[in-house]
Amino acid sequence: MTLDLTSVLVMTALVVNTSGVLFIVETLLRRDEGAGRIWALGFLAGMLTTLAYTMWSQTQEAWWAVAVGNGAFVAATGCMWLGCRRFNRRRMDWSGGLVAIGVLTAAIAVGVEGESGGDWAGALWMFLALIVFAGAGAVECLRGALRDSRTAWVLGAVLGLEALYYVSRTTAFVTTGPDSPLFKDVFGTIPTAFVTVVLTIVAVVVTSVLRASRAPMRGYRRRATAVARDGVLDHETFDGALTDLCARAAVRRELVGVIAVRIEDLDQISTAFGSEVARAVTETWRTGVRRHAPSNALVAEDGPTGLCVGVLVDSPAEARRQAGAVYRGLFDDLGKVGGGVIPVVGVGIALSDAAGYDAQALQRVARETASLAAESVETSVLVGEIE
To answer: Are 110 and 120 in contact (CB under 8 A)?
Structure first.
């Protein structure tokens, strides 16, 4: 079967636009947070990409459509990376600026060559930007909260495959040229369209699942109490309470500490010892952190394998003492679980004298430090520094 360029681009546009519309509509139906909104912008940019390329395929005089399509394509991949960073509650200033530079560079490169640039005007700059942003997105899926979700690993695989594909495509473009049989048959517009369709379908499913874990549907009331049966707050309530605590503490220059406690190997424990043992470990971990934290501390969920403790402390030494008490008490409690199964536990501390009175920054530093502590062979309790 022989496929013409216009038919393939129309098919790609249909899939990408349908996926984008579904994701954007779902975004409007949910009380969405930043990650879902940024991913929605990415799908919107993807829709613009297909529209621009379809217009370009109809008339070679619309060379400016290539500039729009290239820039929008870079924006789509860049937004996937930015959404992952937002999901992990990482800083967005420099990364957002980097994506903006990449988009402008890809579009301007086409404008510099103008109408004489042909079908592949500015393609190399677009390829390089896609490699960088797709690769960065794949790495981000292996960090922070995304690392704890197997669903995010699929998104990381999608972005990783995109990066590898464009590394190969760039290599063929530079070495053999866009008119070579190798490039046309393996990395031309038609093969790339099929790759785009597959990756888009997988990406919209994965990002929808990830967004659903954090953004409830509009119109559904939150439960009457934001405290679970074991006394642990949900993350949204904790975030608001910690923000208020930081605002009041900043006036008096009091020291705010956030202690993140992350537990590893739950999946491996469930596989090796059964779901009952894994459930017992989880329950012991949740109740243990709350029991050994200070009585006036806020204790809340932080993803499926994390808990956060927010508290006022007199000094950094006091914060380390309290974190150490939580770790030692938790270690003793876990040792009593049937079968003697003790998971890897990491405890990270973030203090307002280093991270400032920013609730989001405090949580991010504590969370990342806890992950580092879980991987450390020297100590399981670490004090973090802001980037």
So the answer is: no
CA distances from 128 to 120, 158, 166, 198 (A): 14, 17, 8, 21
Pairing of strands 345-351, 381-383: parallel
pTM as predicted: 0.65
CA atoms within 13 A on the CB side of 173: 19
Amino acid at 211: R
What DSSP letter does each residue of 46-112 carry, written as one string?
A: HHHHHHHHHHHHH-TT-THHHHHHHHHHHHHHHHHHHHHHHHTT---HHHHHHHHHHHHHHHHHHHH
Query: What whole-number distance in Å separates Cα of residue 384 and Cα of residue 152?
Result: 25
- How distant, in Å, are the alpha carbons of 117, 164, 191 from that of 187? 19, 12, 6
Tokens representing residue 116 in the block: 């004489």
Q: Which amino acid is at 37?
A: R
Which of 27-41, 216-230, 248-262, 273-287 is least confident? Answer: 216-230
Q: Give CB contacts under 8 A, 24+ apart, made by 218-223.
A: 218/29, 218/30, 218/31
H or E segment and range at residue 300: strand 298-301
Q: Is the distance from CB of 299 to CB of 233 less than 8 angstroms? A: yes
Alpha-carbon separation of residue 84 from 7, 99, 234, 299 (angstroms)? 33, 13, 21, 25
Is the separation of the CB atoms in 81 and 137 below 8 Å? yes
Is residue 383 helix, strand or coil?
Answer: strand
* Spatial contact of 187 and 127, defined as CB atoms under 8 Å apart: no
Neighbours of 275 (CB within 10 A): 10
Both tokens of 17, joined, read 């636009």
pLDDT in tens, 99-120: 999 999 999 999 888 777 777 8
The answer for residues whose C-beta is within 8 angstroms of residue 338's C-beta and 6 or more apart is 277, 280
Give the 3-state secondary structure of residue 265: coil
Please tell me the distance from the alpha carbon of residue 289 to that of residue 287, in angstroms, as a whole number. 6
The span from the CA of 299 to the CA of 72, in Å, is 42
Q: pLDDT tens for residues 253-274?
A: 899 999 999 887 777 777 777 7
